[in-house]
Amino acid sequence: xSDRRGLSYAPLGLSREDAALYIGVGTTTFDTMVADGxxxxxxxxGKRVVWDRIKIEAAFRDLGDEPRGNYLDGPLKIAGR
Length: 81
Prior knowledge:
It is elongated and about 50 Å long. The chain has helices at residues 16-23, 27-35, 53-63, 73-79, and strands at residues 13-14, 43-45, 48-52. By secondary structure, it is of the alpha+beta class. α1 crosses α2. The protein has one domain (13-79). It is built from four helices and three strands. β2 and β3 form a beta hairpin.
């Protein structure tokens, strides 16, 4: 893996944009996944905010283990039932 700085190794800390790209989603979806706990919270290093690549990989692998609900669960939840 080579990034824009020419590094030949994967960095441990990823920016929000790079973290979203890493798992194949847009930043808005990534933000939602962080907020609902499917992706890890960031690490604050001084003024920088970064995500641990290893934790992102683990969370991504766990996504396939999510229980699948009935297709009506979403609409019924919105309706308050």
